[in-house]
Amino acid sequence: MHSIPYTSATELLAQFRAGTLDPVAVLETLIETAQAQQATVNSAASLQLEQARTMARESRRRYAEGTARPLEGVPVIVKEETAVKGWPRPLASLVFKDRVATENHPIVDKLLEAGAIPYFQATNPEFCVLGHTWSKMYGVTRNPWALDYSCGGSSGGSGAALAAGVAPLATGSDMAGSIRLPSSLCGVYGYKPPFGRLACASGDEYLVQAVEGPMTRTFDDLVLMQNVVAGPHPSSFTTLPYTPLPTSYGDLKGMRIAYCPAFGNPTLADDIHRNLLRALDGLRRAGAIVEEVELNWDLAEINQVLLDGLRAVFVDEFMGDIGEDDAAKLCSYTEVLREQGKSDAVSIIPSAVLGRQLHRDMHDKVWGKGYQAFICASMLTTALQADQDPVAEPIIEAHGHQYDAYLGWCLTPPFNLLNRYPVLAAPTGLSDLGVPTGMQIVANAFDDETVFRVAASHAKAGSSKLFVEQFPPASQPALAAVA
């Protein structure tokens, strides 16, 4: 059995029910881990301990009385952007450093109703508009596997905290890859559900490129958490009815799976490609018919159209609240967005048009050809410094290639335009730098169960087993000592 910081939620619940672990003692152990990681990984925006300790005592009582709920006593990481009533919510910005959430996000209500214990508030970049996790407010959040390198973003604090052992479950949000990038770079599982599967926050009904979703260290925990947080909520009028996902899956015998490693982009790093092909071999052993298809997508165009759409419905309006006196408090990457908003107009319409074109291409080459799932890498390279500043250094040079430093290394944005597609990020191995790599498992609109079925076989195949075996990262003695 793993040490407490690396015990899954599924196993914690089993031991809580058996009386072999106590929710109060588990929380205290994880608090020690959370405090210790701050000196190296720096993934905590805040620790909310008083309420959590009260909730842990309540969970202990419920287990004794036989009234435990589905996630009773399980500690949870909550991304700072995700509102928890009474918790700070500055969106990592010094401009809004005194802001406090006045109500819960629906995903938080669902977790609380299930008996989970939110206690760790994870860092994100300012306004969640960067693929790394650093800000003037919180400093640099680092990858527990290799501290010099990026943990991804914008849910990088959640991914790093999971990998550092502070809790088995975390919330994330994704509007350009913000769940899938940190999940892949931190060696954990993450799910970008189709828009409408989870209730969005009030006011976000038209921000269809962005969704909340679960992040976990194990596949079984991803199913567990998704089944708790999905489905209707009283504050949302956009959420679909929900049928819980199965908790066990058979093999993939006869399933046809298409893959295209990087949408035709020639700069995919060899180590990421190697790990992806190994994962695909595991799916073949599970009975799947896995075949390569040709998709030649212009990633630069996709990225720009997505960013323009996000600016049209979210960023520009938000930046309008920031006066000239506060501009100096902004991070470099948000100041650029603010200046762009003053000089040029953008529209959501091109996002809809390009999304339709991408779906037609997927239909012509994937869904219409009888494939049930599609797989690609999550990013082109892992050679990403933790404090990478795309304004100061707009070009990344790695393994003989150049990448636009803002989104040019990401393979996630197409599926924010295709925002009704479910996409699950799963770990595939370690890069030559010692940073985890990952893949995206995709299905057609609202076909959630297919991506979980494929991911279940991937987890069983062993190509991601090293992450379970190596937590905590052996290269970080300070973290290993905590566990």
TrEMBL record:
- Example GO molecular function term? catalytic activity
- InterPro entries in the cross-refs: Amidase (IPR000120), Amidase_CS (IPR020556), Amidase_dom (IPR023631), AS_sf (IPR036928)
SUPFAM superfamilies cross-referenced by the UniProt entry? Amidase signature (AS) enzymes
Q: Which Gene3D superfamilies match?
A: Amidase signature (AS) domain
Q: Which residues form the Amidase domain?
A: 26-451
Q: Which protein family is named in the record?
A: Belongs to the amidase family.
Q: What is this protein called?
A: Amidase
